[in-house]
Amino acid sequence: MNPNEQKLNYPWADTLPPAGGSLEVAPGVRWLRMPLPFALDHINLWLLRDQIDGRDGWTIVDCGIARPEVCELWEQVFQNELDGLPVLRVIVTHMHPDHVGLADWLCQRWNAPLWISMTDYATAKLWSGAGGRQTGAEAGGPNGVAAEAHFVRHGLQDEKAREQIRSRGDYYPSMVPSVPDRFVRLLDGQRVMIAGRPWRLIVGYGHAPEHMSLYCEELKVLISGDMLLPRISTNISVFDTEPFANPLPLYLDSLQSYQDLAPDTLVLPSHGKPFRGMHERIRQQQEHHAERLEEVLEACAQPCTAADILPVLFHRKLDSHQMTFAMGEAIAHLHALFFDDRLRREMGEDGVYRFQRI
């Protein structure tokens, strides 16, 4: 456990939900854990006891990726964890594959509606198998040629990495083959009644187009999605669909929305373990990015590409999946400094962007 983690409180210590099972973490709130085929090998999903229009049942929050083994685990959950009751709705925090991948399957399996923000619904619909052009490394760079060109403009020269990015053209639709044709729109500040308790929606930017976290004041529980994670930093990246984006300030500003929540709130993150110490974790994230920005600024005493500063931000060997995230994050830090007038940007005769301290 790193020093930052030691400042957080993990009520269940190392206890995890069993495969295909659940662990109750608050009244009517159950924790599920599903596998992912990456270095980040799991996603946390949530079952909320519910009642809608007089029907008792469950609300699912987030879905896992579309893989047969994940469907099999869900079937075990249906058999053993629902107390014989149906799924009444599916809430998705945002459009990344591990969150929305099985939404259509779950909604059809239970004839249940999908609840999601409009921006993330539209993006998932566009990027899924039926949606036409897909792109972006968080989505896997389904338009691999466009993703490669984007990163080449930022200095990526390694041919093996470039080939891996080009070859990932079906990455998003392979994990999100379809998205429901209809949805219920989630909006910032909206209160969703779940089992008679109001859950307030809190929008977050920078990580996804319109990420929604859910907070129940009565239970003092925050389903944070990917906006607040206990052990790793939320990925904040610039990808080829929005090549001049400036997402890092959006993310840091979004964290302020959690500052008014109860200090002893139980945070239910999408990765890692449930924890208390939300305000400490927000402080850590703010400090982390401030330090990274200063390191990038120092590195840019001489002209630097995003590829040049990868060793500044990441002190480990990166696989192809991690490389796309890392390049996106490097550009995000450079853009934050550029738009803050601390760096200047020039495109060289080789078609590559370089940044230098002003």
Automatic annotation (TrEMBL):
One Pfam entry name: B_lactamase-like_C
Keywords of this entry: Hydrolase
InterPro entries documented for this protein: B_lactamase-like_C, Metallo-B-lactamas, RibonucZ/Hydroxyglut_hydro, Sec-metab_biosynth-thioest, WH-like_DNA-bd_sf
Stretches of the chain forming a coiled coil according to its record: none
Superkingdom of the organism of origin: Bacteria
Keyword presence, Hydrolase: yes
Domain Metallo-beta-lactamase positions: 42-271
A GO term for molecular function: hydrolase activity
Protein name (Swiss-Prot/TrEMBL): Zn-dependent hydrolase
High-level lineage: Bacteria, Pseudomonadati, Pseudomonadota, Betaproteobacteria, Burkholderiales
